């Protein structure tokens, strides 16, 4: 299985089969065990990894950095103000230069086209650390977290409550459909996923048996859910939309009442983070002052409840990013898991 990954980029979930995505989830779990047992796993020994960040990050940057070091590679962080990408130098030229120096490139930014061009022109594996369209490394961590909780994925139901058009919603819709996990996108009509993405997910669901529901009805959307998932109401670069989004999404806030509507005692709560669950941040204070709310997509009560798995998800970013880098850029024997 590992040879099918060698030299490939990880740009969007649709580029991988159900078996390949499942392998990445299982291999992430295997690497998590190796780290816990202090077993060396230097599959990228001596290699150099470029970390390109146009947007801020806590988890993705930390996970790529620690994963690279654990794998024996050197990570080099290159922020938006450090290099000429897209300002003084084209993506094509930058990719050609980096392809001659680095063994793999991570990119976090706005445009999916940029990450695809980096892959096309660099000749080395490129990993999508988030674009406006997709967040694929997040998905391997998320489905690992779900698998850890339920033992398997097939037939489970995720209810995603919130902005149905952001990258996490897109990725959850398509990844769930590929993996055979039922996915409900619970969102106002104005924020429902693009028709092309729903159609793409429906095509995968036909193969996998996953059931897809896009609804503005919270009661219908969360009933029977095994996982309630939410994300920030305003994505990076959309900050002027705060007021509008609060008005649209307040009925979809994940609170105790919504969790109970699942009618599932085993339900878990997930969030890719960062989360606006209190007013302890600059953003939180601004929202509290300007709009009179101290919690947005999830209440502090749910965030700190028995349902909460968001910090397991955050940790799993490390193990899953490590798996993705190892199988695509590594050249050592990787055991079957
Ligand atoms: N979930 C996620 O991508 O976190 P960061 O923005 O902190 O990288």
Automatic annotation (TrEMBL):
Alphabetical list of Pfam families matching this protein: OTCace, OTCace_N
Binding site residues for carbamoyl phosphate: 57-60, 84, 108, 135-138, 272-273, 317
The Aspartate/ornithine carbamoyltransferase Asp/Orn-binding domain, residue ranges: 155-327
Residues the entry annotates as binding L-ornithine: 167, 231, 235-236
Catalytic activity: carbamoyl phosphate + L-ornithine = L-citrulline + phosphate + H(+)
Chief location: cytoplasm
EC number: 2.1.3.3
Top-level enzyme category: transferase
Protein localization: Cytoplasm
Annotated Aspartate/ornithine carbamoyltransferase carbamoyl-P binding domain residues: 8-148
Family classification: Belongs to the aspartate/ornithine carbamoyltransferase superfamily. OTCase family.
Name of the protein in its database record: Ornithine carbamoyltransferase
């Amino acid at each position: 299985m590992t040879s099918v990954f060698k030299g490939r980029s990880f740009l969007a979930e649709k580029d991988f089969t159900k078996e390949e995505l499942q392998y990445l989830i299982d291999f992430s779990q295997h690497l998590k065990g190796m780290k816990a047992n202090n077993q060396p796993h230097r599959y990228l020994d001596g290699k150099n990894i470029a970390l390109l960040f146009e947007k801020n990050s806590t988890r993705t940057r930390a996970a790529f950095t620690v994963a690279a070091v654990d794998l024996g590679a050197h990570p080099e962080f290159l922020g938006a103000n450090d290099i000429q990408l897209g300002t003084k130098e084209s993506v094509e030229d930058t990719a050609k230069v980096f392809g001659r120096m680095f063994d793999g490139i991570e990119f976090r930014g706005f445009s999916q086209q940029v990450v695809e061009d980096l892959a096309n022109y660099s000749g080395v594996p490129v990993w999508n650390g988030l674009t406006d369209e997709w967040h694929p490394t997040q998905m391997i961590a998320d489905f690992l977290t779900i698998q850890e909780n339920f033992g398997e994925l097939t037939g489970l139901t995720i209810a995603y409550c919130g902005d149905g058009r952001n990258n996490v919603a897109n990725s959850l819709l398509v990844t769930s459909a590929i993996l055979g996990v039922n996915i409900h996108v619970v969102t106002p009509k104005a924020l429902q996923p693009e028709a092309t993405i729903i159609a793409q997910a429906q095509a995968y669901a036909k193969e996998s048996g996953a059931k897809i529901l896009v609804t503005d009805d919270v009661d219908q959307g969360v009933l029977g859910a095994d996982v309630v998932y939410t994300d920030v109401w305003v994505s990076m670069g959309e900050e002027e939309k705060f007021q509008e989004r609060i008005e649209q999404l307040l009925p979809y806030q994940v609170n105790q009442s919504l969790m109970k509507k699942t009618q599932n005692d085993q339900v878990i709560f997930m969030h890719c983070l960062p989360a606006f669950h209190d007013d302890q941040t600059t953003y939180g204070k601004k929202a509290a002052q300007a709009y009179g709310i101290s919690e947005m997509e999830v209440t502090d009560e749910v965030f700190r409840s028995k349902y909460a798995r968001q910090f397991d998800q955050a940790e799993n970013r490390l193990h899953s990013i490590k798996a993705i880098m190892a199988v695509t850029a590594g050249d050592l024997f990787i055991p079957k898991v």
